[in-house]
Amino acid sequence: MNMAQEQFRLGMTYLNASRVAPALSAFQNAARLAPRAAPAHHMSGIALQRLGRLAEADAAISRAIALAPREPDFLANRSLVRSGLERFDLAIADAKAALGIAPEHVGARCNLGLAEIAKKDYVAATWTFLRLLETAPEFASGRENLLLALRNIDDPTQALEAAEAFVSVAPSDGTAWTELGEAHHALGNQQDAVAAFRNATRLMPDDLDAHSLLLFAMNAISDLDSAVTGSALTAFGDAIRRAAVPRAKSRDVRVADKQLRLGFVSGDLREHSVSHFLLTALPALRARGFELVAYQPRPKIGAVTERLRPMFDAWHDISEVSDEAAADLIESDAIDILFDLAGHTAGRRQRLFGLKPAPVSIAWLGYSASTGNPSIDYILCNHRVLPPAAEGAFTERPLRMAGSYLCFSPMGAELAALENTERMMFGSFNTLNKLSDRTVALWSRILQAVPDSGLTLKARAFSGDEARSSTAGRFARHGISPDRLTMIERSPDRSSHLALYSRLGMALDPWPYSGTTTTMEALSMGVPVLTLNEGPFISRVSASLLEQAGLSEWIAANEDEYVAKAIAAANPEKLAQHRSSIRNSVIQSRLYDAAAFAADFDATVRQAWRRWCTGAGEPGS
Question: Per residue in 220-259, pLDDT tens?
């Protein structure tokens, strides 16, 4: 063995022992002794890369490639180095060159995908990692990088195509079905979303997120049998019981009239619809003596976050905190009542509630259906959204407020006149997933009955052509031509969003997933909202808001009445004249009366606390 070979082998020994500096010295010695030995230059580059000396690593590996241009390992490794140098186009070229020599080279394909992710070409990266998963299913980081790329695709149509490919490559991977369900959900394909999420829960029965996604998607299915929903709630409850054992009571302060400490778990303490119901309510609650503590599971912040922060006595970011540690924190904060403001929406922490870190827990505001979590005691509501006959569908007890269980915050937007008083324009700014088949059929009946009328829809999904064409196709099946539909993408800010209400003469509420913030926004901008008061809690939210605003004439008891009310009121000139009175009705109602809301809230949650103090709120009581 010559000296160059000895130095090279010594370098490999050092590198395998993670002694990178002496390894580099040995590889460089080998390269000096045998300057045409490409492996010595290549390994010098690898050692330099591990030391963070990327420019030198690039130069060393380039010397190796000059000596051995057909060696795919060299090209693949230079690709990774060049990604680190943010020379992404060169990194992609290197990886593709390596694959041109060795099409099944795992490292080259992985490095190609990483360069595409770094360049933010998430669509290309998704397909790269799909190919990698197909050819090397056991490659550890391939699946994780695939998910990273897939979840960053903005175009919902491309995301659906990629998710379908993921399922075809990995049909037994529950996460693939979850991604497919989310892609369908974003496009409003709720039947397909539910089917995908069911497969995910079948493959991953202990995955709480898969159960949450299924339950959330089920809310938008208009013809779903209640037994199916009940079965899904039971399955989720069983999964929670397996995942989280309620803690033994470490604190037992049963004083009925004590000053209550309320905890709020929400990932939406930012520019989000949930915050629009907190901005005036929270100061009113503090004025009544409540101590308020926030637990934020998502680190997103913004101007609204900074407005909310001083409204709490304490604020905790639990985004990087385990459920056990968060439960410890809640216990140490001596929280009496813990509120879940997420349910099965983004930012959920259902397992945290399963640990039962506070004596009483209440679901409120962010989710208008049963969570199915056996450790959540109550759901805050009123008689309109949850009449006694509907209680059986909930695992939580109803905790009914006398008036509105919601309090909206002033928007600061001026009343805008109706733009067009000649053509009747109906509209809905609810997310696309709320457009159930029954909703499309119902709205089509109205459009058929009101000649020359139009329908304006606004949803983030309309940024993609597939969502536009599929939505137009759904209405076309009911005889509505595409030229009667106006589809608007997401607005850049809230003021731009609110300005769009000047286009609508009447807002139509979807069924079964009723609007909440969209209803309040429309009414506050002087636009009446027509709603169908049938079905579960989630279908009756707008009816509750209209009733509290003194606008019950816009509540329909059945489909025929819904259509008849729309036809009778479809006069844009008259609707333009009523905008001011509608706006005044809602603003002067209890929906904007924070002090009255806080008094009602105080009396209602105090009932739950007193039940616990007497033992009446204990399980099985």
Answer: 998 888 889 999 999 999 999 999 999 877 566 788 889 9
CA distances from 496 to 62, 273, 306, 502 (A): 52, 16, 22, 11
CATH topology of domain 261-407+600-614: Rossmann fold (3.40.50)
Q: If we measure between CA atoms, which residue out of 164, 149, 143 comes closest to residue 119?
A: 149
Q: Where are the beta strands (DSSP E) in 202-331?
A: 261-265, 291-296, 314-317
Q: Which CATH architecture has domain 3-170?
A: Alpha Horseshoe (1.25)
Task: Determine contact, residues 386/544, Cβ cutoff 8 Å.
Answer: no
Report residue 212 as tokens: 């949450």
What would be the CATH architecture of the domain defined by 425-592? 3-Layer(aba) Sandwich (3.40)
CA pair distance 127, 130, nearest whole angstrom: 5
> Residue 65: pLDDT above 60?
yes
For residue 108, give the nearest of 138, 86, 82 by alpha carbon.
Answer: 82
What are the Cα distances from residue 228, in Å, to 215, 393, 397, 571?
10, 11, 21, 42
Helix segments in 456-516, DSSP class H: 465-476, 494-499
Encode pLDDT of 85-129 as tens digits.
Answer: 999 999 999 999 999 999 999 999 999 999 999 999 999 999 999
